[in-house]
């Protein structure tokens, strides 16, 4: 029992001492806190306590003993005090409420102190009422300085208004009377940024509409003033004024960090106006956004394309197709090795576009079987870029809308370049499917609106400088953060030799097109007129080694500032022995040897590589001659004949015995033989490079097989179902694979 009591006492004592110690700690903590917080506010009190008696005693001792000197000293101090007060008033600004308070308070302090000192000359500091005035006045003034300190501290969270200086003079001229400009800061990179807030009767939109006026008033380029709204607060925004052009001397081409990187790594294209790297990353974005590049002739579209292609050509798991009917060779001829299918002929361009649906389907099936919703580097398929220069001359936009919508999820990135994307040549639907944009110089501000989102043009980001500033523009989407959309960019520019050598040197790192896509594209791809190089191209190692040396020389010969080399990049050693296939190179450093030994070429590539340039040229010539002859035959030699109104796909009645329509028919051909005759006709066409046909073109083979049109139509239907032939509509067909050599 006694023990229990002791324990309870001990426990009570323990709790009591803990409480006491906690209270002590709390007291010390609060005391320390109060002391720390109040310390910055003590100097006015120390000054009020010490300065008046010291100064009062000094002036009284010096001049107070005689009436004459006291009078003169008082007059002098009074005059000086008045002058000092005036100067204080004059030099303190009053642009804001805070500044007004500071002006009144500083002037009052000076005037009161000098007035008291004037009286202290003869009365001394400690007589009455000098002592009372000192104690009351000093305390009041010290407190007022504390208030001032508190107000300044509060200003830290709410930036100080800077509607002074140049902007103050401009406000009425540019209609910014209702705009408060705060916290203006130079970025140190040629740009001044400031927060803005509009009065209740105005909007940020109204400020945006004055951007051009502000630019003119400040003598900066029209696109140099950008006003972006704050998404969180409709009354606030940010104005950015570019006062110096860091990009005017050109932007160096940034070499890749390494050869053999994945498509999902950033693609550096140039520089932002504030000196930051301008890069896109379409394949890593949540949604693959196709890109529309727009700009007048001479705006810099081709140069931009070269930079993009050069980077993609150094990557693994990446395939590029490019259509340029106007000046393909001139634009990218020196880099054509990096383009797997380079098309400069309208008919071949159509073939590519027609064969895409089959590729989309095949890729979709493979991705589904791999458990992927969209393309990622884990897929067995390559990422792809299909770039169409001056798309208005190449494609039927209805077809493109469908394609653009479907290719996105199967890892095919679509790039379309246009000089002027008006609604005439670019439908709203296709525009909606091109969410990435790079808009370079256009002639009129409204043209920029065809490419750039409204939020960007409204902010004043309008590249209406035509071809005067090549390479400059604005870019949106494709992984670019939204807040960068209104910052001017400039693409890089380097020599042709550097780009050509880079593409050639990187060939051992390029993968051939995956067989799924190659097979689905069928004969259109197998018979392509141009073949890029990749790691399966015979002799590519030696070629690349020589190109690496050429690259070193081209870099050395390039003008200063034309090439920038990342710290981690090491060019492959010339004639390095091929290494075994390795994991994807994602590190910054470039391995000293190429990534892979040449793998066995795919069926398509073997076939294609064996086809000599002369054979290809001959084939194209045969095709052209055939087209020429067929083109010369009138569409309907017998316009008045009884069968004239029949369509090719219509069933026709059996010819009457007395009809003059007679064909020499092979009797007794078995079903197998008849089919082979038809297939042989199609195969012959494929061998000669002809892939497009109409049902009527099969009549001779049908007749030779001893069959009639319904049989031919049935065969055609089966060929379509088997994926060997594609129906393009309007009674025309494309052969995807020869029925005698299916994929
Ligand atoms: N980023 C850049 N920096 C400096 N000069 C550039 C840049 N881009 C392009 N240029 C120069 O501007 C000129 C026109 O460029 P480019 O041929 O790329 O224009 P374009 O838009 O493709 O014209 P077009 O539509 O006629 O083909 C060239 O002399 C080129 O060197």
From TrEMBL:
**Which Pfam family is one of this chain's hits?**
FtsK_SpoIIIE
Q: Where is this region: Disordered?
A: 575-611
Q: Which Gene3D superfamilies does the entry mention?
A: P-loop containing nucleotide triphosphate hydrolases
Question: What InterPro entries does the entry give?
Answer: FtsK/SpoIIIE/SftA (IPR050206), FtsK_dom (IPR002543), P-loop_NTPase (IPR027417)
User: Which species is the source of this protein?
Assistant: Streptomyces flavochromogenes
Q: Where does ATP bind?
A: 295-302
Assigned keywords, A-Z: ATP-binding, Nucleotide-binding
User: Which ranges are annotated Low complexity under compositional bias?
Assistant: 582-603
Tell me what this protein is called. Answer: FtsK/SpoIIIE domain-containing protein
Q: Which PROSITE patterns match?
A: FTSK
- PANTHER family tied to this protein: DNA TRANSLOCASE FTSK (PTHR22683:SF41), SPORULATION PROTEIN RELATED (PTHR22683)
Establish whether keyword Nucleotide-binding is in the entry.
Answer: yes
Give every FtsK domain span.
280-449
